[in-house]
C-alpha cells in the first residue's frame, strides 16, 4: 500500500532473482495504489473507510491481468486476507505465515516484534507465532508510540538518521525484555532498516516475502 514499502519489496525481489540479463527477471504486475483507505485509521483509530473492498478490487484487477499469485507487502493489511481470498481464485502468499515459518526454521524462541499498533492489537503475529510454539515480545506503550511516529513519518517521505537511533534503542529494550531476535514487521520500517545494526539476529518480513516470491515464481516452491 505504502509507495516506499512497495518500492523496497520490488528492489529486494530484483536483487534476489538469479538473473544474467533483463529476460531472466520475474515479470511482475504491480498495483501501486496509495489511495487505499488508511489501515491505521480504520484498525487503530476506529474511524474512516474499511480498506478491504479497495484491496479486494485491486486483487481482482491483478487476477484479470493474468497474475499467477498475489503478494501484498503490507503486514497490517493481512488482517484483510479473508476478503482478498474470497474475491479471487488465485492464491495470496501470506506474509505473516512465511515470516513465522522462517522463525520456526531458525529455531527462534522469543522474537521482538517491530510492527504497527494494529498488528499488536489484533494479535496478527502473536497468533501465528503461538501456533508454532513461539513467544512474542512487544514494545512498551512509550516505545510503540515512538514506532508509530516513525511509521507515519516514513509514509510521508520523511526519514532521518535519528530514526535509526530510535529503532536501536527500542531493539535494545526488547532484548532486555527477553527477545532473542527482531522481526521487522512493518514495510515502512523495512524501507529504512537496511543500515540497522544490532547484536541480535534481524528477520525482515519484507525479505521473507520477497524470498518466497522468487522461489514460487521460479517454480522452486509450490503455491499452496
From TrEMBL:
**Database matches in InterPro entries:** Asp/Glu/hydantoin_racemase (IPR015942), Asp/Glu_race (IPR001920), Asp/Glu_racemase_AS_1 (IPR018187), Asp_race (IPR004380)
Q: Which UniProt keywords apply?
A: Isomerase
Entries under Gene3D superfamilies matching the protein: 3.40.50.1860
What is the residue range of the signal peptide feature?
none
Q: Which GO terms describe its molecular function?
A: amino-acid racemase activity
Q: Which PANTHER family match?
A: ASPARTATE-GLUTAMATE RACEMASE FAMILY, GLUTAMATE RACEMASE
The entry sums up its family as follows: Belongs to the aspartate/glutamate racemases family.
Protein name, entry field:
Aspartate racemase
Recorded source organism is marine metagenome
Amino acid at each position: 500500500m505504502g509507495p516506499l514499502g512497495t518500492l523496497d519489496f520490488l528492489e529486494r525481489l530484483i536483487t534476489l532473482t538469479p538473473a544474467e540479463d533483463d529476460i531472466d527477471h520475474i515479470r511482475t504486475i504491480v498495483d501501486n495504489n496509495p489511495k487505499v483507505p488508511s489501515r491505521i485509521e480504520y484498525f487503530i483509530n476506529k474511524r474512516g473507510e474499511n480498506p478491504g473492498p479497495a484491496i479486494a478490487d485491486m486483487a481482482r484487477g491483478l487476477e484479470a491481468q493474468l497474475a499467477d499469485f498475489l503478494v501484498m507487502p503490507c503486514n497490517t493489511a493481512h488482517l484483510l486476507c479473508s476478503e482478498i481470498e474470497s474475491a479471487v481464485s488465485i492464491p495470496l502468499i501470506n506474509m505473516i505465515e512465511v515470516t513465522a515459518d522462517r522463525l520456526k526454521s531458525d529455531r527462534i524462541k522469543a522474537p521482538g516484534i517491530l510492527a504497527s499498533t494494529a498488528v499488536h492489537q489484533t494479535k496478527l503475529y502473536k497468533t501465528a507465532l503461538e501456533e508454532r510454539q513461539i513467544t512474542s515480545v512487544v514494545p512498551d506503550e512509550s516505545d510503540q508510540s515512538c514506532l508509530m511516529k516513525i511509521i507515519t513519518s516514513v509514509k510521508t517521505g520523511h526519514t532521518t538518521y535519528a530514526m535509526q537511533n530510535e529503532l536501536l534503542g527500542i531493539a535494545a529494550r526488547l532484548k532486555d525484555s527477553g527477545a532473542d531476535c527482531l522481526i521487522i514487521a512493518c514495510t515502512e520500517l523495512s524501507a529504512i532498516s537496511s543500515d540497522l545494526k544490532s547484536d541480535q539476529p534481524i528477520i525482515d518480513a519484507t525479505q521473507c516475502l520477497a524470498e518466497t516470491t522468487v522461489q514460487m515464481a521460479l517454480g522452486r516452491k509450490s503455491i499452496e
